[in-house]
Amino acid sequence: LLGPDGSLAVTIFEEITTLANRHGAINLGQGFPDEDGPAELGRIAQDAIANGNNQYAPGKGMPDLRAAVAEHQERFYGLTPDPETEIIITTGATEAIASAILSLTGPGDEVLTFEPFYDSYGAMIGLSGAKHTTAALLAPDFMPDLATLEDGFSPRTKMVIVNNPHNPTGAMFPVEVLSEVVRLAIKYDAVILTDEVYEHLTFGPRHIPVATLPGAADRTLTVSSAGKTFSFTGWKIGWLSGPARLVAAARTVKQFLTYSSGTPFQTAIAAGLRMDESFFTDAAATLRRKRDILSEGLRAAGLDVLPSQGTYFINADTAGLGITDATGLARRLPGLIGVAAIPVPVFCHPDGARRTRSLLRFAFCKKEELLEQAAGRLATLK
Ligand code: PMP
Ligand code: GLN
Predict the structure, then answer these.
(1) Is pLDDT of 11 > 70?
(2) Which of 66, 123, 177, 376 has the most crowded CB, counting CB atoms within 10 A?
(3) What residues does the Aminotransferase class I/classII large domain cover (predicted)?
């Protein structure tokens, strides 16, 4: 966990947000919305605090929230996890990911991720002592090459991590890709850890949970989070679900990371998960409009915009502007034009970083006028 100069690493999100704040830049870097989620959920959390629900929740999560997670999975996907043994509540998806990786993998094991990969996977695989192997997702649509995917597996592969919809690319994997991952996980007897925090933030294709695919359920741990779905990223309420033996293993680690997670927020998120279908579809439609505004603006600014089917994010290629170092550019942009973005190479090992060296990731979960303003500022780079 050291940076390139040997100093202790600070995450790219922290680094770019600090730069954005220093320069008063429009922050299209770190993925957090600039408007709060449903006011009624805020009131439920406030009432829970006022009514004295301020002590430790049970380690595996409040029973009502575990029940709500189970109901949500049944309502949207027809899955029926047992809230007692097959679901735990975590401190954000981040802790679910950490607990799963640290409990199930270690030295001598390999963990396969797609590349680019969300930063915490690399850090946690590193802490576990396992070897991190990757399978490339190639621009413009960021799909893996199914003909060579098996090359990433070996008899040592203990876990394969899927992230769908995918951060940082905005890709959504079709059933053929997900089924091939499941087939190979079965063949090599690997656990599938699937990070589906953007399950409701999709702009066309329907989200397909890995756990619904034939043969997947008894080796799949699914991670999700309230942060993205309900626009409360600071509440840090996430969850992990899957077969009892894998959830129990993750829980063993979880209890020594944080023991339990914010009690009043759990009450509110239980209500959130029970909201009408229209809440979920409206949130996705609002975000889709923001995606369209930003992609139009980026295109007008002379950037080559890559497709985004879900998440908060869209990628743009700066090569057309003669730029080959997106990481250097991302560090200069806040001071230069008052816009912050995340460089895609930071989500890669060295080969992948070369492939993605001119790509920037922009977050569009921001007010529409800010997206337009940011695009206007980027146009001055031409
Ligand atoms: N996984 C992915 C793919 C993410 O983008 C994020 C960031 N929201 C997380 C996990 C972490 O989620 P949380 O804030 O709930 O810990
Ligand atoms: N998930 C957020 C992103 O991808 C960042 C969360 C964090 O700062 N760790 O931008």
Answers:
(1) yes
(2) 66
(3) 26-378
